[in-house]
Structure formats: structure tokens, C-alpha cells
Design goal:
The complex is a heterodimer. By secondary structure, chain A is mostly helical. Chain A is built from ten helices and no strands. In chain A, helix 5 packs across helix 6 and helix 9 crosses helix 10. Classes of the chains: A mainly alpha, B mainly alpha.
């Protein structure tokens, strides 16, 4: 059996190269959120600033970092599904490595993805008026927290990838789900702008919890409870869906049809 | 001529059956427009009401145009699929009318757009949208929307002719889609945009089509908005058709 750190490193290199070389992944993680940031800012800055009072970039940048990580994760899910459907995973099973170490590769790609999303959205956001107002420690925490959020939000897609056979059956429902989650997360407007009946739902959403913690790290303000909720949600997603994905990868071989 | 009609109807039926059997196509024609209608209402209605911008009346026309753009994005996907699987070259080798594949696709996308229009306008009317400009204007509403869908199908179909794979065609088609729909009069009034961007927002084809639909539903001047939209459509359809013919020749000769 190959030591797990060696196969993990190999799979990490593969996943990172796959991300960097895939036009779709770059479009979904970097270009699309960038266009979204610019376009939403242009359309709604006037009205939301009139409603809320603060610079709109301060709200929108954390919201779109989380959205970018969420929508970008569809690419990771499609990649895993292709690995299963093309027989790559079956091939890995015949080799002396642990199949579950492929998941480590996904995590490594997530670090690269989070860095790309933060760098690009952060610098364009800066031009639009976003500023780090939370102090040095909070600013330094943004990157590791974004990686954690990215990993957590990739897990449901990975689990779903082990259960579906075609790209369409995987990416269309995930896209619809993520669209709803993004709109229901206070990424674009403060919670007070939602209808009264929807506000408790927004408050309870995991994506809203992730947006809130990044928002507080960037803008300052009470951090304790948002961090607690974000960690709790991340743990639930990683343990719940991650375990499901790993178990299906390590379990009886899925037939490659 | 009869060959053109017969060949086109066979290929159009194929295109319609193919997308009707693809859950992702149904989702993009029906579910996604309804999601956008509901979600933008949920998130932006209060904020926009403070700007004097009535989402209940104005948003359905935006989402109709958005759904017409989805029809275009699906054209990009299916064209790339036909190209990469060799179907496009195969059609070229058959004794059928040369124009029928393009015409058939356009008809199929027009049919799909009717479904989206019915669903979005139906939900819009149920949530408070009103047509106050008469029956003729309401019929014009459908015509303008379908014409826009045809324009988008021809335009985004071009992406399908050049993209490396069908999945990348779908991703690439989202790049023109997003700025065109967001930087329009669709979700926020033109005056809310930064000053330097307002000329673009005001004159681009998506704003023009949305304003025409709103006018035909009773909000705005019909003759100026519809004239502008018809002019945009004629120009774009001519350009896109010419480019389609050239790029198809190049794609099948490879």
C-alpha cells in the first residue's frame, strides 16, 4: 500500500492541474463571480446603499466569495463524477492506494480555488470601495476561513456526484439549489430587506452563516456567534456529506455505465 | 421549397423531442425562470419599492427576456453537441436543404420560448402583473419575446460552433448573458447605474426588448420601444445568420 501522504500529494497535484486547465472551472470560480460582482454592484449599489447606508461593496464582496466557492464546487463534483463514470476510480481500486485519498485532492484544489476567488474578488472589490475594517488578525483569518467554507460547500456536491450518472443530472439540480441558497443568504441585501416571513429562513441558512462570518471578518462587529454557527455548519457538511462520499467511494465499486 | 419545409419540420421535431426529453432543458425553460422571478422578488422587492420601481408589474417582463436568453444558451449547448458528435457534418452529407438545420433549430427554440413565456407570464399575472394596453399589444408582447429568443438562439448558437466541448459552450454562453441581463433596465431603473455606464444600459438590445415588453403590457411608449427593438432584431439576425453560415461551413470542413 502506498503511504497515504504520497497518494494524497499525487491526487492533489492532479486536482489542482485539472482546475487550472479547465476553462469551465475558471469561468465558474473567477470570471462569473467577477462579472456578478461588477454587474450587481452597478445595478443595486444605489438602491441598497439608500436602504442600508453602508458602502455596498462591503456587503457584496463576502457574499460573492461564498457564492463563487459554492458555484465553483459544481466543477469539482462533475470532475469526481467523470472519474467514476470513465472508470478512473475503478482503475485506482486495482492499485495499491486508498481510493478515499482522491478526496484529499479535491481539498487541495479547494485551497487554490479559494485563493483565486479571494484574490480576484478582493482586488476588484477594493476598486469598488471594499476595505478590510476588521483589523490585522481578522484579515489574516479570512483565507483559512474561506478554505474551510469552500471545502464544506464542496462536500454535498461530491456526495451527489457518487449517486448520479450524467453531468446534466448532477449540475442542473445543484445549480438550482445553489441559486436558491445564494439568494436566501443575505449576500446581496441585508436580512431586513427580506419579507418578514422569509427572515427566519435566511437567518437559519448555512450559506448565510458563511456569508456572515466572512462579512464580520471583513467589516468588523461581533464575531463569536457567527464563527460558532459557521464552524458548526462546516462540521455538519464535512462530516455528513464527506463521510457519505468517502463511503460510496470506498464501498462496492459503482458500475461504470 | 417543399424540401425545405419537409426537411426543416423533421429536424425541428428532432430538436424539440431531444430537449423535451432532457430534464436540464426543461429546468432551464421552466424552473430557472420561475426561480429567478421568485428570488428577485424576494430579495429586491422591498429595496426597489423604496426607489419607486414596482417589481410585481415590471419584473415578469425582465424574466421573460432572461428566459429567452436561456433558450439561446441551450442553443449553444446543442449546437456544440451536434458539432462535436459529428451530427452537423452528417447532416451536410445528406440530400437535405442546406438551410434546414439552422431553420429547424430556430423553430425549436421559438417553440421552447413560447413555453417559457406562458409559464412566466402566468405566474406574473397571478402575482399582480396586469396587461393594460389591450389584446393587440398583448399579442405583440408574445411576438417581441419570441423574436428576441430567435435572435439569442442565432447569436449564442455561434458559441456552440466554436467552443471546444458542449459543456464549455454552456459556460462560455453565460459570459455575454450575465452583463447583458444585469446591466439593463430589467432589475433596477437606468438612473440607478453609474453615470458612465448609463448610455450602455439605456441603448443595449436587452434593455430595448425589456422596455418594449413593458410598454406592450401598459408601462411606457409602445412605438419608440418596439421600433428600437425591431431594428436591433433585424440587424442582429442578419449578422448572426451570416456568421452562422460561415462558421458552420468551417466547422463541418474540419
Amino acid at each position: 500500500m502506498t503511504p497515504w501522504h504520497i497518494s494524497a500529494a499525487t491526487f492533489s497535484g492532479r486536482a489542482v492541474r485539472r482546475f487550472v486547465r479547465s476553462p469551465e472551472a475558471i469561468v465558474n470560480t473567477v470570471i462569473f463571480p467577477l462579472l456578478l460582482l461588477f454587474a450587481i454592484f452597478a445595478a443595486f449599489a444605489t438602491s441598497v446603499e439608500a436602504f442600508e447606508g453602508d458602502n455596498y461593496a462591503q456587503r457584496l464582496v463576502p457574499g460573492l466569495v461564498v457564492s463563487g466557492l459554492m458555484f465553483g464546487s459544481v466543477g469539482a463534483a462533475v470532475g469526481l463524477q467523470k472519474d467514476i463514470q470513465t472508470g478512473f476510480m475503478a482503475r485506482i481500486r486495482t492499485m495499491p492506494v486508498r481510493p478515499s485519498t482522491t478526496i484529499v485532492g479535491v481539498v487541495a484544489a479547494e485551497v487554490v480555488r479559494a485563493a483565486a476567488a479571494l484574490l480576484v474578488l478582493g482586488s476588484v472589490g477594493y476598486a469598488l470601495g471594499f476595505r478590510f475594517e476588521g483589523g490585522a488578525l481578522r484579515t489574516l483569518l479570512i483565507f483559512p476561513v474561506a478554505v474551510l467554507i469552500g471545502i464544506a460547500m464542496t462536500m454535498p456536491g461530491l456526495a451527489f456526484a457518487t449517486m448520479t450518472k450524467t453531468t446534466e443530472a448532477l449540475s442542473a439540480p445543484l445549480g438550482a439549489l445553489y441559486l436558491v441558497l445564494m439568494f436566501m443568504s443575505a449576500a446581496m441585501v441585508p436580512i431586513e430587506a427580506y419579507p418578514d416571513w422569509a427572515q427566519p429562513i435566511v437567518r437559519a441558512s448555512p450559506v448565510a452563516a458563511f456569508v456572515r462570518v466572512l462579512d464580520r471578518l471583513g467589516r468588523g462587529g461581533d464575531l463569536g456567534r457567527p464563527v460558532l454557527w459557521a464552524i458548526l455548519w462546516a462540521a455538519v457538511l464535512i462530516i455528513g456529506f464527506g463521510a457519505l462520499a468517502v463511503r460510496r467511494l470506498a464501498g462496492p465499486a459503482p458500475s461504470a455505465t | 421549397m417543399s424540401a425545405l419545409v419537409a426537411d426543416t419540420s423533421i429536424l425541428a421535431r428532432r430538436a424539440i423531442v431531444r430537449s423535451a426529453r432532457n430534464p436540464a432543458s426543461i429546468m432551464s425553460a421552466v424552473l430557472f425562470p420561475l426561480l429567478f422571478l421568485g428570488l428577485f422578488n424576494l430579495v429586491m422587492r422591498r429595496v426597489m419599492a423604496a426607489q419607486g420601481f414596482d417589481y410585481a408589474q415590471l419584473l415578469p417582463s425582465t424574466v421573460v427576456i432572461q428566459a429567452m436568453m436561456f433558450a439561446g444558451m441551450s442553443a449553444a449547448y446543442y449546437v456544440a453537441d451536434d458539432r462535436t458528435t459529428g451530427m452537423l457534418s452528417r447532416l451536410r452529407s445528406l440530400p437535405i436543404h442546406r438551410a434546414s438545420p439552422l431553420l429547424a433549430r430556430t423553430f425549436a427554440d421559438a417553440a421552447r420560448s413560447l413555453l417559457s413565456i406562458a409559464v412566466v407570464v402566468g405566474v406574473g399575472v397571478a402575482t399582480g402583473m396586469r396587461f393594460t394596453a389591450g389584446a393587440a399589444a398583448a399579442a405583440g408582447y408574445v411576438l417581441v419575446a419570441v423574436a428576441f429568443a430567435v435572435t439569442m438562439s442565432l447569436g449564442m448558437g455561434l458559441i456552440g460552433l466554436v467552443a471546444p466541448t458542449r459543456d464549455s459552450a454552456a459556460s462560455l454562453a453565460s459570459i455575454p448573458y450575465l452583463p447583458l441581463i444585469m446591466l439593463s433596465s430589467g432589475f433596477a431603473p437606468v438612473d440607478d447605474f453609474p453615470g458612465w455606464l448609463q448610455p450602455f444600459v439605456e441603448w443595449q438590445p436587452v434593455t430595448s426588448a425589456i422596455d418594449a415588453l413593458r410598454a406592450l403590457a401598459g408601462d411606457g411608449d409602445i412605438s419608440t420601444t418596439v421600433t428600437r427593438t425591431v431594428m436591433w432584431s433585424v440587424v442582429l439576425v442578419l449578422v448572426f445568420t451570416a456568421m452562422s453560415v460561415r462558421l458552420t461551413d468551417r466547422a463541418v470542413s474540419r
